[in-house]
Amino acid sequence: VVVACTALESARLLLLSRSGRYPNGLANGSGLVGKNLVFSGFGRARALFKHAGRKDREWVTDAAPFVQRSMQDYYLLDKPIDGVRKGGTVLFSLAHPNPIHTAERIAGDRPERAVWGLELKERLREQAAGGKALEFETFAEYLPNAGTYVDLDPAEKDRWGTPVARVTIARHPLDFKSTKLLVDKGVEVLKALGPDSLEVVADHGETKILQGGTCRFGTDPAASVLDPSCRSHEVKNLYVSDGSFMPTSGGVPFTLTIVANALRVGGLMAKRFKQGQL
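Predicted structure:
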């Protein structure tokens, strides 16, 4: 059996799977299912480059340029900066051009600062039709800690009457410093391009769609849920192949790491099957 429901829902499924043999949930003899939840440290900034006066910069007036480049100059630091020894990734890309997304982005998502009416129309003309928005987002390591975990909600139920996943978050102080460092470095790059305007959208957030850590792997059954092949220490025909296995988040998006590990786990399962071990 391979569980791959995302780190939140895989942990929830195992915690819900209680029996006389597994009173605290399936594969949870260590008590670590749902613990050590990690996301990704997130920051974002955006710069506007108007078409007017930019004839010397072809990428601004080009009808369809492609910009998607990652900078990892500050992934590992030779010397700590404000206690930070590991930064992460800064990904530059053009703001998505679809009109609904553009209108929502320009209008803003804060009621007290939202832009409407004539002002919104003018900004749409200026930013959507009269310029290009180059932005970046950052991916910083989210340090696992005892205060960030998923468990079963004692009150809220889903439509089948089972407890939903409850997420508790307590960020490590160095998370914020790593994200702020990456945002500052990304802003330096945008400023060097001479934008017409620049705003920092976030410098201490987290990307919750990137999830890991709730069934971390390791060699010690008392300190991990899965073995190095992502098979449960306790239930030998149970594997977990999503981001749950990750002991920490690293400083990149999780997706390709999850895919690569899933292929590795699949190869190990196929080998064991051929050897009659499954």
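Summary: The radius of gyration is 23 Å.
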